[in-house]
Specification:
Strand content: 15-25%
Helix content: 25-40%
Distance between the termini: 32 Å
Length: about 60
């Protein structure tokens, strides 16, 4: 089984990835909204693949990048 971590602050994007990836029975999907949550999820689930939003909005309102 392949574990995929989807990290995006947009719920619609997370839902879209989950919808597409869930069509494959051998993919386990974990999704989070941002950096701290993603770090904890990666540590807990040991993701094989991470789909990361390149321009995440940080808690203070600025963008990373």
């Amino acid at each position: 089984m392949t574990s995929v971590l989807v990290v995006d602050d947009e719920e619609l994007v997370r839902f879209g990835f989950q919808l597409v990836l869930s069509a494959s029975p051998d993919i386990d999907i974990v999704h989070t909204r941002g950096g701290h949550e993603a770090s904890a999820a990666a540590e807990l689930h040991g993701a094989d693949v991470v789909l990361l939003d390149a321009v995440l909005v940080l808690a203070g309102g600025s963008t990373d990048g």
